[in-house]
Specification:
By secondary structure, this protein is an alpha+beta fold. The chain has four domains: 64 residues, Galactose-binding domain-like (Jelly Rolls, Sandwich); 331 residues, Glycosyltransferase (Alpha/alpha barrel), CATH 1.50.10.10; 81 residues, Maltose phosphorylase, domain 3 (Sandwich), CATH 2.60.420; 65 residues, no CATH class. 39% of the residues lie in helices and 13% in strands. The chain has a five-stranded antiparallel beta sheet with strand order 6-11-12-13-16. Helix 3 runs antiparallel to helix 4, helix 8 packs across helix 10 and helix 15 runs antiparallel to helix 18.
Amino acid sequence: MNGEAGAHIVLRHAEVLEDGELATRPLRAAEATDSVVLNGAGPVVWEPVFTFHGFRYATVEGWPGAFDPAAVTAVVVHSDLTRTGRFASSDPLLNRLHENVVWGMRGNFLSIPTDCPQRDERLGWTGDVQVFAPTASFLFDSEAFLASWLRDLAREQDHLDGVVPVVVPATLEGPFIGAIAGWGDAATVVPWVLYQRYGDFGLLRDQYESMRAWVDAVLDENGDSALWAGTLQLGDWLDPSSPPDRPDKAKTDSDVVATAYLARSLQIVADAAAVLGEKLDAAHYAALAERSRAAFRDEYVTPAGRMLSDAPTAYALALRFGLVTDPTVRAKLADRLAILVRRDGYRIGTGFLGTPLVADALTDGGHLAAAGRLLMQTDCPSWLYPVTMGATTVWERWDSMLEDGTVNPGEMTSFNHYALGAVADWMHRTIAGLAPADPGYRRLLVAPRPIAGLDWAEASHRTPYGDARVSWKRTDGYISVSAVVPANTSAIVSLPGQSEFTVGAGRHSFTFDAPHRAVFGKLSLESSTAAIIDNSAAYAAVLGSLTRIDPGRADAFRTQTEWLEGRSIRQSLLFAPAEVYDAVEEALRSVEGE
């Protein structure tokens, strides 16, 4: 900038535009404004030193003379972390989602892992990094960064008798005093993730007392009960069904969430103790973990394979945390989870704690296709909906921006939160098929699981032993896989329909039969809604026919239909005019003709 003395230039920042103007309401009390007063002594370069701004858009006011956009440069600021992981696929929307996850991490890994970089907050929320640590460890070399933050976490515990505050460094007062499931569990989960991903025995040893102090504090708070119930919790935060002003009011009961996390953290401490040679602790905490698992099953799981909270997060917790071990009951739980996911039209039904688990829970239970449909959904709420709305980072809410382009009315709305981007870890491990089989990638797992809608996918990661890579593509009825295994390591190879086998370092190629395409029978108004949602062509045809006749009814059909085996299309269009039934019948016949 160059101008006369006293010239006043003002720069204002925001994440999104609303009605063509900066949307500053989500910033809350943050002004996100820089003011520069020139002294007239010649050109001045301004760059903030004591603050930073999370933004996509900026206005520049008071520029002396004609404004030259080339005079302004946006500078990306984050801690200096080496990029170690990448993912790509044949789907541009999925690639954009993954890039949004990367940008969300870059914007929030600045000195500490913050929740958001733009508003009057920028705090080290423990729950966010707890769910995101696996993704962070794949994308960037995050070990030293997170180890430093864990030391801060341990110091905060010293002041709270082992309880972990919801933000580290601890700056909040009021209702967030006490043990909060999923947030405080960062004390156990993050060190364990870092041990699994980096093989750092010393880090695990350094954090062990913090890990143990956390579970002991929870047990003390609950009177040594095997259940964690009846206390203040955040639960499955920002479940899409929760009201805008009550993000804690999720479908899954917070007691279910809390007890699940207690059992998981107890087991992690037991496993860490075993690794560290603490045999008495290992036995002690393993027994406590089993006690909590048994209490969870007795209290929240029926023998028929239903959960007290009949919601996706409840099932995902029970399955992924190993709280239910009976194979028959586990299969029923997985089947019910798949039914719930389809019932909602393959739209997301989970919040901060359930979202990182649901795709894995479906995959483990034999419902990979449902997990794939969930990932590839573009209607709101979904991972790809923000991408269709032009997002460049991961949003805090599934609908931070509504379909009409207005900002969510909730007081808490961020357009750069990485927590819901934790699904990228599943994309790396499952879609591409690259994961650690032993701590620190001493042994790899090559296990690609192609999903419908993708012709190819690939992932690479810089392990301590060198670059590892897995890629696959569809070719004439089969899937061809390529893998690079670094020197001094080996890999377990798991391909669909084949027995597992082990390979050594080097480049390898494999093939397996491509999954058969689904075969659909004759469709009519009497067909189930489940049959329609599982046939993308039929769904598109029905929705298109309704849109042409009655856009309002089409929108209701899209957002309110329950997609179930026992409910027909005719029933879902109850009391519709005859012309609607005729149009839908004709649309279904056109699909059959194809």
